[in-house]
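Propose amino acids for all 481 sites.
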């Protein structure tokens, strides 16, 4: 049993508490049983000889000589009907034994503590528990008989053996102890089985987690058949392993894609730089062409690095929104205007409805423009020559709604829920880092907006952005027009 383990803690905490409780219960039960037996014995003596009945019996032997009282005492003892259950003694006023039901003499020097206590009691009776001269454990009770002037004439003493009661008390105590021990055994066995039903799966989960930590993402936990929290935890660990494996694959694909994206422009830049070095400016047309390629590929590298920097800021929480009053429609028009040249170069028809309304809002102008640019860049990347990219804008329900629809390759149903996840790239054949939409989604959330993507494979994609606008400013502008 491992030090500090669940089983050890259960044994030393729960089980020890149960043991203490059972000990307390046994002690209390033993004391209660003993008290019940002793009180029963005393009540029996009270029922057999009541103080008033004794006083009534001796009324004809009071206020006389000691010999007269002794005569009445002998008569009382001889006629006592319960001598088969208990011994009865008659005592004189000094506590000396006059006669006993057993018929044997008693040493007058033998102490009779219950007689002394009865003399001082308001009820004229007192009991005592102890051992007699032969060593037998007994209970004795004395009842004082008084003269009419209140002085003690003598006493009647009843004596009951406690040996049988103590023996029965011991048997009951042992029985309760054995019953408690049996209950403790059952609790221990059931508890150990229950703890093991938790510890063993947890141990398997622990071993699986270690394998996952070492890079074995195919490791799985055997799910229990109990359908409880442990089986749910096993399912969660297995799901976590699957997600880590998927994320690791996506990360590896991302590294491979980014490496390829970086290498392609670098290769072009290096190749044209070497060509320009070799021709030495002798061919002006080729020199101009090479410089254009170098600038274009450098722009590609710049955009890739910018995406990586933005993603790094997003992951570390360092992406800061600097809000200021802007017109989102102005930023959208400027972005669309920038893409006009690319549309002509790529042979793609760019449609923009050019709305005349303003869309005032408090936002970060650069981040909002980046959202528009990333969405349009994605639309152009996945649309082939001869295709169409359409940009529509309207105000609906207090939000600026911008839709960018393309006639590109579309996104499969399996890939669509993951396109805004980090490192995810649905189509690895198209250039790009695969983090553009993740950055776009984060920026839109920072502005309390919403991003919606719908797509059909082979038919195109529609990306819709909802950005909250300043309603009061819109209403004021409408009144002024």
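Proposal:
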């Amino acid at each position: 049993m491992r030090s500090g383990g669940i089983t050890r803690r259960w044994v030393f905490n729960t089980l020890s508490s149960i043991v203490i409780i059972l000990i307390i219960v046994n002690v209390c039960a033993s004391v209660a049983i003993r008290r019940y037996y002793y009180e029963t014995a005393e009540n029996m003596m009270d029922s057999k000889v009541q103080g008033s009945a004794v006083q009534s019996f001796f009324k004809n032997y009071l206020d006389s000589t000691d010999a007269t009282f002794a005569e009445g005492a002998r008569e009382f003892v001889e006629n006592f009907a319960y001598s088969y259950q208990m011994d009865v003694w008659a005592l004189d006023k000094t506590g000396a034994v006059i006669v006993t039901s057993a018929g044997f003499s008693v040493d007058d020097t033998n102490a009779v503590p219950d007689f002394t206590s009865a003399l001082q009691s308001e009820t004229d009776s007192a009991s005592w528990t102890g051992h007699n001269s032969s060593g037998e454990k007994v209970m004795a009770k004395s009842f004082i008989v008084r003269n009419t002037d209140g002085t003690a004439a003598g006493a009647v003493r009843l004596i009951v053996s406690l040996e049988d009661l103590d023996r029965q008390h011991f048997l009951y105590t042992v029985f309760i102890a054995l019953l408690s021990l049996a209950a403790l055994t059952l609790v221990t066995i059931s508890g150990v089985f229950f703890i093991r039903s938790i510890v063993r799966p947890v141990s398997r989960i622990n071993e699986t987690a270690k394998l996952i930590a070492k890079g074995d993402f195919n490791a799985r936990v055997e799910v229990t058949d109990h359908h409880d929290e442990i089986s749910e935890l096993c399912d969660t660990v297995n799901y976590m392993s699957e997600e880590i494996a998927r994320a690791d694959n996506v990360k590896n694909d991302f590294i491979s894609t980014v490496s390829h994206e970086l290498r392609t422009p670098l290769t072009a830049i290096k190749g044209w730089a070497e060509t320009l070095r070799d021709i030495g400016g002798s061919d002006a047309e080729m020199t101009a062409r090479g410089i254009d390629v170098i600038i274009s590929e450098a722009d590609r590298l710049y955009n890739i690095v910018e995406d990586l920097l933005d993603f790094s800021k997003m992951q570390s929480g360092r992406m800061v929104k600097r809000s200021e009053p802007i017109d989102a429609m102005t930023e959208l028009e400027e972005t669309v205007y920038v893409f006009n040249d690319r549309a002509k170069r790529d042979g793609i028809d760019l449609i923009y409805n050019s709305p005349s309304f303003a869309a005032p809002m408090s936002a970060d102008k650069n981040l909002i423009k980046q959202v528009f640019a990333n969405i349009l860049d994605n639309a152009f990347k996945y649309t082939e020559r001869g295709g169409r990219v359409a940009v529509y804008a309207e105000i609906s329900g207090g939000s600026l709604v911008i839709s960018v629809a393309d006639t590109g390759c579309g996104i499969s149903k399996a890939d669509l829920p993951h396109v805004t996840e980090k490192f995810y790239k649905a189509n690895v054949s198209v250039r790009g880092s695969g983090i553009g939409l993740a950055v776009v989604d984060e920026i839109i959330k920072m502005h309390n907006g919403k991003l919606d993507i719908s797509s059909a494979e082979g038919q195109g994609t529609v990306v819709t952005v909802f950005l909250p606008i300043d309603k009061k400013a819109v209403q004021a502008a409408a009144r002024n027009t």
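Residues 321-480 form a domain with the Heat Shock Protein 90 fold (CATH 3.30.565.10). The chain has a mean pLDDT of 83.
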